[in-house]
Amino acid sequence: MLDMFSLTGQRALVTGARSGIGQAIAVGLAEAGADLVLLGRESTMDETVAAVRAVGRDADTFGADLGDPAAVADVARRILDRHQIDILVNNAGVILRGRAERFAFAEWRTVSSVNLDAVFLLSQACGAEMLQRGAGKVITVASVLSFQGGLNVSAYAATKHAVTGLTKSLANEWASRGVQVNALAPGYVETNNTRPLIEDEQRYASIRDRIPAGRWASPRDMVGAAIFLASRASDYVNGHVLVVDGGWMAR
Ligand code: NAP
Q1: What predicted TM-score, i.e. pTM, was given to this entire model?
Q2: Which residues form the catalytic set?
Q3: Which of 14, 19, 23, 74 to mutate to test the pocket of ligand 1 (most atoms within 8 A of CB)?
Q4: Interatomic CA distance for residues 1 and 12, integer angstroms
Q5: What structural domains does the chain harbor?
Q6: Is the Cβ atom of 140 under 6 angstroms away from ligand 1?
Q7: Are 168 and 196 in contact (CB under 8 A)?
């Protein structure tokens, strides 16, 4: 029965795999049997590469600024020229904080480009080939801020809401053609993304105290859900937003 979670013979592309959730998911997928393509801002992701190879899987790396649509299209082509991508994990994301009335439009555009435009472009490029084969998994990384507005994160919350809309839209188009598209929505995870909240003792504690599980997540907490969404076990799951938040949204 556990065989349905095996990723042996599959190759997964994980964006933003140098650190945090992307690194944990990449290593987790490798532990489940997948070979990896790791995409980062820079192609050097030594720690992630070493961890993937330590479990006996292959890791190839590519670098691109996902905030630049031309660079995204170019790197997608280079990756697909070299590899068949069976699983795409659109993990890379950026959060820029600031009060909406003073938030620079350039920053809005940066967040939109990385969190939304790149997700569409990579899903389109990889999805087109998956559709030709009649099989594939696309996972987007949403957030609890796909449901809530947050504080001082207007661009981030807007893009994370949009990511779930895009996920459902792609799922509707591709479900009957063998490609499952779903979102993983983490709660509060200790990574670079949340560093300012972690360093603010009061804010860190107030968030922790609102989480029914009583603790922040570690990136490793996201791995089980990612393997599920990447594997045959989720073949009849389409357009779902799988919240992994220690109960934050239930409260
Ligand atoms: P992280 O450690 O900062 O990871 C973000 C990754 O995205 C990094 O690897 C980063 O690359 C990459 N990235 C950012 N801008 C990029 C660009 N222009 N081009 C290429 N790569 C870029 O933070 P994280 O928490 O693991 O974030 C991963 C995903 O989870 C994001 O989509 C985030 O929105 C989402 N998320 C996080 C939380 C949380 O509580 N931490 C909660 C909900 C959702 P570099 O390493 O090169 O900077």
Answers
A1: 0.98
A2: 156
A3: 19
A4: 22
A5: 2-190+219-244 (3.40.50.720)
A6: no
A7: no
Both tokens assigned to 210: 């609102």
Q: DSSP state, 189? A: B
DSSP per residue, 90-113: E---------GGG--HHHHHHHHI
- pLDDT score of 1 more than 90: no
The separation between the first and the last C-alpha atoms of the chain, rounded to the nearest angstrom, is 34
How do residues 151-190 score in pLDDT, each as one tens digit? 999 999 999 999 999 999 999 999 999 999 999 999 999 9
Cα torsion 195, 18, 24, 170: sign: positive
The per-residue pLDDT for range 63-118, each reduced to its tens digit, is 999 999 999 999 999 999 999 999 999 999 999 999 999 999 999 999 999 999 99
- Is 127 a pocket residue for ligand 1 (Cβ < 6 Å)? no
Q: Distance between CA atoms of 118 and 239, rounded to whole angstroms?
A: 19
Measured CA to CA, the distance from residue 209 to residue 175 in angstroms comes to: 39
Probe residue for ligand 1, chosen from 191, 197, 218 as the CB with the greatest number of ligand atoms within 8 Å: 191
